Amino acid sequence: SPAAESMRSFSPLWNALLCLALLPSSAAFVGHGPTRSNMASVAGRIGGPMGRAATVSMALPKDKLLSIAQDYLDNPSPDKWSEDYVFRGPVIGPLAKKDIIETLGSVAEDMKVAFPDMENNAFGLTADDPIEPNRVWYFRRPRATWSGPFKHPTAGVLEPPEGGKPYIAPPEACSIILTDDGLVQYQSVGYVTDRFTGDNTGGRGAVFGLYAVMGQEIDASVGSPITSLLQKVAAMLPDGPDGKPTIPKSYSKPEDLPAWWKDKRMGAEA
């Protein structure tokens, strides 16, 4: 589809913003934890975030989960999202499928120019979640160089210093949840696990870290009243001449989110 071709064309930002770097894993179950055969029933009894886990009828085989994840990494495309897909970070989201495509499209090429050598350095992939059996978790430690201009939506063109500037991000935890049909239904990104590892983003993860390196520091903490206010103001701005938001959306309208998403908090709201 045209949307899929567009997504593939800005793979570097895809890696940076969505944190989707899933690597195959040979880790096996150890000890006496839950088995793949009973994980779905455990999920149904205990439930999970937003009640999502209770809807899982049977866990996909572990090797299938990892195979799908690797294919998603190698060939990122919204065609691999379910129609009720939701994207969420600590202070960005929830974003429905159409809104995340629009949001990515508005900044992707510019980020690709600004950080052309983005490396995710993903590791620790696990498909052993005992509560949500179709959820894949992993870590990443991104590295890149700010070496090109970036067209900031409000601050104009940001130019890197001579010789560029390194982007050293803190480690982040990310995940995806797959439907039983193998489509990505939910994606969580940018959850910093340790802000004392020598990063130069002020402990910020995902796109907030990229902005910090370019001198545009934004409070990325959950519950930030300033960030919440800015997000609300941005949501009220009229669309530009092209019919698209003047500033990329931080979250979707409640009526545009799928019925399975129950959490009422938007953006940075605690």
Descriptive keywords:
270 residues, alpha+beta, six-stranded mixed beta sheet, two-stranded antiparallel sheet, 19% strand, globular
What does this structure look like?
The chain is of the alpha+beta class and 270 residues long. Helices cover 29% and strands 19% of the residues. The chain has seven helices and ten strands. The chain has helices at residues 2-9, 11-18, 36-46, 62-74, 97-114, 206-213, 225-236, and strands spanning 81-88, 95-96, 122-126, 135-140, 143-146, 150-152, 156-158, 165-168, 172-178, 184-192. The strands form three sheets. It has a six-stranded mixed β-sheet with strand order 2-1-10-9-4-3. A hairpin with a 3-residue loop joins β6 and β7. The longest helix has 18 residues, at 97-114. It is globular and about 50 Å long. It starts with a helix and ends in a 34-residue tail after the last helix. Residues 4-48 and 53-57 have low confidence and may be disordered.
